[in-house]
Every structure is written in structure tokens, then in C-alpha cells.
Amino acid sequence: MAGSxxxxxxxxxxxxxxxxxxxxxxxxxxxxxxxxxxxxxVRVIPLAQWDQGGLAYLSPRLVTVLSTLACLFVVLRTFATxxxxxxxxxxxxxxxxxxxxxxxxxxxxxxxxAGYYAIAGGxxxxxxxxxxxxxxxxxxxxxLLIAYTGFFGFxxxxxxxxxxxxxxxxxxxxxx
Length: 176
What we know:
Strand content: under 5%
């Protein structure tokens, strides 16, 4: 009977997760998992390999897949810790944390764009003297990967925190 109890728990968790996703901000958090994929179609943030862009060894598809997986992890991990977060945080602290994550996301996209255009503009060859097949260029690829994934991950986390605040009904403490 232990298997049916576990199965019931999984179904209850899934039902609670689906209920959570009906909230507006939670819906945005769920959709934000797909943001890195949508960037491949809309191309808001440039993502291309050498000759057209800043990536040398990592393909844009790999960067997109890793970013999408990171966003999915953020959604699932945040929801899994919802009870602990709800016990620790008030509505105001949910908002503060969400705002911090939003700002960190903007910083990450700034780092990504600065690095991307510096590399695409010839940083490796003109400044560092590296040839096109220099393996040290993988360092730049990882910086771009981390910044790109960080942007989407922080944005997803911000949406999740606002969604959890709404879902858990976190109260903002009154004056005094």
C-alpha cells in the first residue's frame, strides 16, 4: 500500500502545482520557461556563433536548451520550497526578493550583451591576440552561457516569487 500512498502524494502535488499555475504571475513564471526558446524565433537577444556573433564553441541551440532547463529547474525548485518560503516571507519580502532577482536579470543581460558585442567586434583577435581556433575562447562562451542563462533564470525566479506570494496569500504587514 506504500506505493499507492506515494502515488496519491504525487497526484496531490501535481494538482497543487496546476492550481498554482492558474494564477497570473505563476502563469507568467510557467511561460517564462519557454522564453529562451522564443528568443530563437523572435531574436530579441542576439545569439549566434562566430562570424555572426560571439559564441565560438557552444552552439546557440545548446545555450537555449541549457537556459530552458535552468528555467524549468527554477520553477520546480521554487514550487517545491513554497511552504518554507511562505513560512519565512511576508508579501513585502516576496516583492523585495522578486525585485532583486529582476535587477540581477537586467545586470545579467547587460553582461551578456556587452560580452557578446565585444567578442563579435573582435575582442579575441584585436585585443587579446587569439586566433579563431584558440581553445581559450571557450572561457568567453561559458561567460556568455552563464549570463544568458542567468537573465532568464532570474526573470523566471522573479515571476515565481510574485506568483507564490499571490498563491500563498502572503500578507503585507500593516503599519505599526
